[in-house]
């Protein structure tokens, strides 16, 4: 590396930053999974201090000099890709003042912590008091990023999650979905109307649910030497590739939501655990986008876990953990897991109606960040869009309406499109997999997940951020993002 001293200095700086981020990830996991309520104020201050330290590291004036030097150094293709990601990170960080980074951390921690009790109480008014500040700071953050990039405020925020994707792109894709989704929902419901489905009979002890979740995680290849499963108000995946922290939530009368949530997070975890160790600590060593990351969780939760082959493997596991009952017969379980029924809660939504939940949130948060609406306007807009998209009434029901997600509480505006983009990528991955492995479904039914894991490992996990997203998608699947694969998948599973 003596011939590239600028690049070497950058690598050392980003390794240091990665270690700070390691601490921040574990501290954030603890805040959501283990921290007692009275620790929130002190924890928020500590996290704000740590985020400020990371911001100072990312904006160290020496990085600008090293970036200029490295640009003219003899680097190979991998190093050039890493340098590209370093420059992107450096530019974003330098667009934001440190006092805003701290203020956003504090406001988000306060809002999210209060939300945990305000949501069950249906306390929109109390939530709004903290949420207004989160929105104000998100708009300010968006404006700083917009001034630097020339993008709109919302595009500038979304670019952090989906580099290169713009709201106009998402709007075009979602408008296409709007054209066929309502009719598909109606057709599937009509087809399922006369199907007999036996509901599982509970209660389902929490200890048994946890044991089941751990067994399924093991089946899916999760490395328990490098991660763990815990409980939180809202399921999430956190930590770092060497120490992946997953959470789920439990209800004694319903094990499926916990199980499917765990499978979803396990998809995230397998990606993290299989990122190239040789790139660890460098910007090239992380997932290229949140949509690509969600494509892994949805490959596991939707593409795999609701397939007939996987359900056949799941059925005896349910009987072993909860005792045999008619509902656990594979055919009934398949009908249960593919039941299409519009509901209020996004994380509990079936595969067909899920995009409507994302479209609703995208349209509201875009208008909110761009200043077309204010925080006070959200409930009425939510009610209107939920009625139009899914025919459901949420008037006065804030806890199952606009207060249900944790994302907005800490200012994660621009994230929601990643879910449906991820579902589309996942459908495209499986179409490519089936071309490469024609007997893929038979192999899965036999309990052989190697073809799936090997394909994902070669085409997604091992690539991390080596390629910009369009090139990654093209190399993996042979074409650009093609939403038609998602529609074909839904029609094949739910209508054929």
How would you characterize this protein structure?
Helices cover 63% and strands 3% of the residues. With 496 residues, it is mostly helical. Helix 1 packs across helix 3 (61-71) and helix 12 packs across helix 13. The longest helix has 29 residues, at 5-33. The mean pLDDT is 97.
Based on helices, strands and strand pairing, what is the structural class? mainly alpha
Mean pLDDT value: 97
The CATH architecture assignment of the largest domain turns out to be Orthogonal Bundle
Low-pLDDT segments, ≥5 res: none
Characterize the biggest β-sheet. 3 strands, mixed
Instruction: State the domain count.
Output: 2
Q: Helical segment tally?
A: 20
Percent strand equals under 5%
Features:
three-stranded mixed sheet; mainly alpha; 2 domains; 3 strands; 496 residues; single chain; globular; Neurolysin, domain 3
């Amino acid at each position: 590396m003596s011939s590239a001293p600028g690049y070497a200095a950058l690598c050392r700086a980003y390794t240091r930053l990665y270690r700070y981020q390691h601490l921040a990830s574990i501290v954030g996991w603890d805040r959501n999974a283990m921290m007692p309520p009275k620790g929130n104020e002190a924890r928020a201050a500590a996290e704000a201090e740590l985020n400020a330290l990371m911001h100072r590291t990312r904006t160290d004036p020496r990085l600008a000099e090293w970036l200029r030097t490295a640009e003219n150094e003899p680097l190979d293709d991998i190093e050039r890709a890493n340098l590209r990601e370093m420059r992107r990170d450096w530019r974003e960080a330098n667009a934001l003042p440190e006092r805003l980074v701290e203020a956003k951390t504090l406001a988000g921690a306060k809002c999210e912590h209060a939300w945990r009790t305000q949501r069950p109480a249906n306390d929109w008014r109390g939530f709004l008091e903290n949420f207004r500040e989160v929105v104000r700071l998100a708009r300010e953050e968006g404006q700083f990023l917009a001034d630097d990039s020339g993008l709109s405020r919302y595009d500038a925020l979304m670019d952090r999650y989906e580099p290169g994707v713009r709201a106009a792109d998402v709007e075009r894709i979602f408008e296409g979905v709007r054209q066929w989704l309502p009719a598909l929902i109606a057709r599937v419901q009509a087809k399922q109307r006369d199907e007999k489905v036996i509901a599982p009979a509970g209660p389902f002890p929490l200890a048994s649910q946890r044991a089941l979740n751990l067994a399924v995680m093991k089946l899916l290849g999760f490395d328990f030497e490098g991660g763990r499963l815990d409980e939180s108000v809202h399921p999430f995946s956190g930590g770092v590739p060497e120490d992946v922290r997953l959470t789920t939530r439990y209800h004694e009368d319903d094990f499926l939501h916990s199980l499917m949530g765990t499978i979803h997070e396990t998809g995230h975890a397998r990606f993290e655990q299989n990122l190239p160790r040789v790139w660890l600590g460098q910007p090239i060593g992380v997932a290229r986008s949140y949509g690509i990351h969600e494509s892994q969780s949805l490959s596991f939760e939707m593409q795999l876990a609701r397939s007939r082959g996987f359900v056949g493997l799941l059925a005896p596991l349910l009987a072993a953990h909860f005792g045999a009952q008619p509902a656990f017969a594979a055919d009934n379980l398949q009908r249960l897991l593919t039941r299409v029924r519009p509901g209020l809660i996004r994380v509990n939504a079936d595969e067909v109606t899920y995009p409507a939940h994302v479209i609703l949130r995208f349209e509201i948060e875009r208008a909110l960040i761009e200043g077309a609406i204010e925080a006070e306007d959200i409930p009425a807009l939510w009610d209107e869009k939920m009625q139009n998209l899914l025919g459901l009434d949420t008037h006065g029901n804030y806890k199952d309406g606009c207060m249900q997600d944790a994302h907005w509480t800490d200012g994660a505006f621009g994230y929601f499109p990643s879910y449906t983009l991820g579902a589309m990528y996942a459908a495209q991955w499986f179409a490519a997999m089936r071309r490469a492995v024609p007997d893929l479904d038979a192999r899965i039914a036999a309990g052989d997940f190697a073809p799936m894991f090997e394909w994902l490992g070669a085409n997604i996990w091992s690539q991390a951020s080596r390629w910009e997203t369009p090139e990654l998608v093209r190399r993996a699947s042979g074409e650009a993002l093609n939403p038609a694969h998602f529609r074909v998948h839904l029609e094949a599973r739910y209508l054929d």
